[in-house]
Amino acid sequence: MIFWNETNWRSYCACVDDLLHSDEVRSMRTIRHHPGVSCYEHSVFVSYMAFRLARRWGMDCRAAARGGLLHDLYLYDPHTLRSYRQCFAHPVAAARNAAALCGGLSAKEENIILAHMWPIAVRRPRSGEAFAVCLADKICAIAEVLRIWRRLRMCRVVLG
Ligand SMILES: [Fe+2]
Ligand SMILES: [Fe+2]
What we know:
single chain; mainly alpha; two-stranded antiparallel sheet; Hypothetical protein af1432; 2 strands; binds fe (ii) ion
């Protein structure tokens, strides 16, 4: 599977364009998530990977892309909380902010966001799309920490 190309990126953007241009999502650019990676960069990376996984598995790739983009919309400095507390608190804050941004969330969208820390946190993914975001989150976090994501050209793509 070629991870990134122009056609896939355009299909992805068609699912999330309104969110990508919102002030709330863009404000994640100022929040550091992993060393050298902002919350915005991480969220777009997860969202795009979840979109690709869901499409490949014949699922709702739009729901996966949108849930992936909003899964870490907690919008505060994560270093203000101890890492144990941040692990459980940030999906709840992200779901609240995502609901405010979108004028409410469906049960599936809410679960995609709340369950993305499974199995570290106890809330389980209840749909294939939620599982795609959960899996993409782990893969992307590893790629970011190991700095592999720059080689996938996502750095250039995300930042334009
Ligand atoms: Fe998260
Ligand atoms: Fe994440």
